[in-house]
Amino acid sequence: MLRLAGDGLTLAVHDEGQGQPVLLLHGFPDSSYLWRDQVAALVKAGMRAIVPDLRGFGESDKPEAVEEYAIARSVRDMLAVLDGLKVRRTHVVGHDFGAVVAWVLAASAPERVDRLVAMSVGHPNALSERSIEQREKGWYTLLFQFAGVAEPLLKRDDWRLLRQLLRGHGDLERYIVDLARPGALTAALNWYRANLAPHLELENRAPLPAVAAPTLGIWSTEDSYLTEDRMLRSADHVTGQWNYERVEGAGHWMQRDEPERINDLLLEFLS
User: Fold this and answer.
1) Strand order of the sheet with strand 2-5?
2) C-alpha angle with apex 56: 107 to 153, nearest 5 degrees?
3) Residue 39's CATH number
4) What pLDDT digit, counting tens, does each position of 206-264 carry?
5) Domain range for residue 138?
6) Number of helices and strands (H, E) in the chain?
7) 238-258 CB burial, b ≥16 within 10 A, e <16
8) pTM of the prediction?
9) Is residue 128 scored above 90 in pLDDT?
10) What is the domain count for the chain?
11) Which of 15, 165, 191, 206 falls 20 to 30 Å from 179 in CA-CA distance?
């Protein structure tokens, strides 16, 4: 695991293989460990997997201020990581909050991104209109806004609420060990406080540019947190080739539920 400079902090980065670089970005409450099956497949196929722990997660630094977790800061982190590794252009694969970082990176620095794969989360412009179904699915994002309240609620009774929220999916026991470290849970929740606070819906922010890179959107039918329509609407915000795949029977962590299917999709699109 490398230690590389980000935007004012240090990030832990796993770098394996040679050939075409692929930057893999995780979301909440993961780390680079999420992508272990994909790293193995990409490296076997002759590619180079670059897999950071995003700020606040895993072994990367965990700044205290909420504003440190704005998406723009993580985009600058990724550009710094690529610069540090002397990677001029890369494919980018993102899941959950990592998908948001990936979309913004591809839209704001198109000269750095060859192909984009967005898993679960659509283009930010498609997220501005939230249906009642999406608001209901995302109830937990409101709970996470309450600093000093969400943390003890999630930890109480051996992390019972977190266990219920995750429904046994993902790397649950590993998440609990990671989030139990000093400052780790607050750092993870600060992603929601910086980017999904309710008052942000009232701001008239400029739309993000369309993505010029060929793009693959992937959504899984048993996702408990995100609706399909937001991914489908992303087609309106991609000027490059748009591809869409629906993974039947997989939950939010589709790369864990259906690793072979996801690996096949990635290799087909990125090769």
Assistant:
1) 2-5, 10-17, 48-52, 21-25, 90-95, 113-119, 215-222, 242-251
2) 115
3) 3.40.50.1820
4) 899 999 999 999 999 999 999 999 999 999 999 999 999 999 999 999 999 999 999 99
5) 2-270
6) 11, 8
7) bebeebebebeebbbbbbbbb
8) 0.97
9) no
10) 1
11) 15
